[in-house]
Amino acid sequence: MPTRRARIPATKYPVERFTLGNGLRVVLTPDRSAPVIGVAVVYDVGIRSEPEGRTGFAHLFEHLMFQGSENLEKLAHFRHVQGSGGTFNGSTHLDYTDYFETLPSNALERALFLEADRMRGPRLTEENLRNQVDVVKEEIRVNVLNRPYGGFPWLTLPPVMFDTFPNAHDGYGSFDDLESATVADAADFFRRYYASGNAVLAVSGDIDVAEATTLIERHFGDVSARPAPERPDFAEPDLTAERRTSYPDKLAPLPAVASAWRVPDPVTDFTGYLPYVVLAEVLTDGDASRLVERLVQRDRSVTSVGGYLGFMGDPFDVRDPTALLLQSHLPPGGDVDKVLRTVDEELDRLATDGLTDGELARTQARMATHLLRDTDAVLGRALRMAVLEQQRGEPGLLNELPRLVGEVTEEQVRAAAATLRPERRASIEVIAGGGR
Amino acid sequence: MSVVVETGTRPLPPLGPNRRLKLPTQAERTLGNGLTVIAVRRPAVPLVELRLWMPFGRTHLARGAMLAQTMLSGTATMTATEIAAELQKVGGGLSAGVDPDRLMLSGAGLVTGLDRMLEILADVLTGAAYPADWVETERDRLVDRIQVAQSQPAHLARTALLKRIYGRHPYALQTPEPDQVRAVKPPALRKLHAERVHPAGAVLVLVGDVQPERALDAAERALSGWNGDGHVAELPPAPPLEPGPLLLVDRPGAVQSSLRIALPAVPRTHPDHAALQLANLLFGGYFSSRWVENIREDKGYTYGPHSLVEHSVAGSVLVAAAEVATEVTAPALLETMYELGRLAALPPKPDELEQARQYALGTLQLGMSTQAGLASLTSAYAGNGLRLDFLAEHAARLAKATVDDVAEAAARYLAPAKAVTVVLGDADRVAEPLAALAAVRTESA
Question: How many CA atoms lie within 13 A of B420 on its CB side?
Fold first, then answer.
């Protein structure tokens, strides 16, 4: 008897879209359940767009956007957001860079002012640049150089899988490249990529649509109009032969391995792409998932395993080319070859024998919970909708994701599993170098 | 030199009127078995968050860690895989965690699955079986995880700090050694479960798209059969900080030093707490603080310095933490002590205090604006004997703390003379420069 499946619920966040005269696209999604708002500005430029010889520049530039702007001294942005009871940050991704605040809703106009001011232009000075190069170097030391498994696999696997600079290079950047960056580079980067026509503003939460629209026109309406630059084609052919490398990590106590396979274009072939998002969860979400059962519990050949879409774990925020990743940490002396062989065997078994009764439905129910939980945070909605608008012109897709994930069929998941062949796989192994 | 823009003179828009702190609808019931259940309504998304806080002080370190690692490994009626699969069916999941105060089971799922999640929770609480094969697998995994933790500088610095500030108190050691974990066998786990996993003193928090009274009914139906009245262990009060030489823990070859500074603090209910929280914000508790603006935005020594008042059942402590480049370890410590001293010796500026106050009040609103945030806050409060209505009281105290109150709190709690300082870093390179600033005692990691 087939198991009864949980009904997948949906959210109904309203979505308003419009475009200002200068080309800035705007998404509003009101929700008055708590007196807080999320404000996000997303620029269509990321790690893939940085010039050769300037690795890490997109991220460095993100830091410079916080260093003062037309009407704001250095430190003023931070102080105004936090002095309004809010928090802020920014982050640099492969295909976009976001800037965001979440605040009590009485700070709406102030937040719009702050974002508009830096969209007009940051204060790019030699002193601020040198200061932020130092800060970024410390960020890289904290997250990569001074810890075990630093940059694994998001920085270490792309150069195995890809051949072209945009897709393969280190997005955090080399210290040499960071130190070579100039104010003129930053000014060029701003002029080219931080154009009103290349940005999306999203505001979520406790807003009145008419009032927010007026305020947005007031603050962003006279930002000078510049068109979006033409987006280069970052396409690369799929692998036809397995690629595999390894490197020693002297801080790492246990071996680790990560593998990636190319997946369909997340934007132009969303229907073909979604089954891979579900497949990653069937394989690795929780104690009842395929690979946890097999590798962790039965074989004890790994101590943990995870699977996800996108090198930065961003299934719905990334463009082609991207990948499905599986990564494992092994016990001391573990056998990486054996782990990779077992994964192949499990993928084969899934493709051939299909799923067990209820396996797909329960995975989809769990995915719905994760998706809904992320949208409960007002800022999560603004950020996701801004990127969905930018990459797809479809911010309302956020409401549809739980249902669409729930409509993926067993046949689609099997077919997706069947494509994850060893000859299409890129892998990187961390050789444990010693512990303390 | 400003190459992109001319500076302008557009005025900063004022803030609208402050929104009053509005507490969500909630209900509370203490069941016959002693379990307290608190249900809070936030219907935003059709989910429910679950937190079960069980007092767990003075537990054997390795057994406690293993109990959390294996609690969901099976019951009389279900295997671990079945537990996970049954929870997944209703979009749910559970995980267990332990610290020196409490054992916590937490999770979230579709609200339509609340009854089923509670049913499975009850099965685990009353019938966790600790099957031998699972315990063996999980034991090895925990050992692996501890080894990975021990290779992380943040973990090593934390371990050294706890040992330094807590001495013989149970808080001093929070991670077991691999050999201690290897010695834990299933009978010891079953015994520990029988002794310490009970409803008396435990608090279950349910937050989400629920009618609070109905959620309490559901919890009562599922959990009233959970019984047991083994012993309760009181934690002794945490000892006061004892300042002394800077403790330098050697980590040869480290490209950064981990700075940790502990300072005295008071619990949430203490009359000084609001003023202390504000003083901490001024020092290093948020980005727009003196410390961050100094050692990051001015000097570029570090990426993410932060300071935080940490509350535990047996006491509170303020911890400031920064990872700094090895070559600027001593200069970073110098600036840190300077900023602490300046705050302890001179009153803050009124506008600086207003900024911190707005931040403290605003982030209270933000913290309550998600189901997950409300659940964690309600549970953390309840674990310390407080309820959500304390938020309003705390907000009122934050609103009325004066410059003098904050200056007084800074002098009392943030004085560098009261600091306990631990640095994890490459002793060959940092010992001598640090010795110019403080007496230094060096240990190996």
Answer: 22
Is the Cβ of A85 closer than 8 Å to some Cβ of chain B? Answer: yes
Q: Sort out which chain A residues have CB atoms less than 8 A from B47's CB and list them.
A: 369, 372-373, 376
- The radius of gyration of chain A's CA atoms, rounded to the nearest angstrom, is 23
Supply the CATH number for residue A137's domain: 3.30.830.10
In-domain check, residue B313 = yes
Q: Are residues A361 and A250 in the same domain?
A: yes
**Is residue A87 a contact partner of residue A101, using CB atoms and an 8 Å limit?**
yes
Q: Considering only residues 379 to 408 of chain A, which have any Cβ-Cβ distance to chain B shorter than 8 Å?
A: none
Phi, psi values for residue A68, rounded to 5°: 105, 155
Residue A420 three-state SS: coil
- How many CA atoms are closer than 13 Å to the CA of A159, on its beta-carbon side? 10
Give exposure, A131-169, as e/b (b: 16+ Cβ within 10 Å): bbbbbbbbbbbbbbbbbbbbbbbbbbbbbbbbeeebbeb
- Provide φ and ψ at B422, rounded to 5°: -125, 135
Domain extent, residue A358, equals 243-432
B381 and B428 belong to one structural domain: yes
Domain co-membership, B302 together with B406: yes
What is the full DSSP assignment across A261-326?
A: EE---TTTTHHHHHHHHHHHHHHHSSTTSHHIIIIIIIS---SEEEEEESTTS-TTS--SS-EEEE
The residue range of the domain holding B420 is: 246-444
Terminal-to-terminal C-alpha distance of chain B = 47
Candidate from B93, B108, B323 with C-beta closest to A286? B93
- Look at the block and give the residue holding tokens 């800022």: A379
Handedness of CA B14, B20, B24, B25 (dihedral sign): negative
Tell me the CATH number at B259: 3.30.830.10
Q: How far apart are the first and last CA of chain A?
A: 53
Contact A303 B145 (CB under 8 A): yes
∠ Cα A82 A312 A44 (to 5°): 70
What's the pTM? 0.96
Mean pLDDT of successive 10-residue segments in chain A (436 residues)? Answer: 71 97 98 96 97 96 96 96 97 98 97 98 96 96 95 98 98 96 97 98 98 98 96 96 97 97 98 98 97 97 98 96 98 97 98 97 98 96 98 98 97 98 98 73
Residue A29 maps to a domain: yes
> Do the Cβ atoms of A6 and B110 come within 8 Å?
yes
- List chain A residues with CB under 8 Å of B81: 287-288, 293, 297
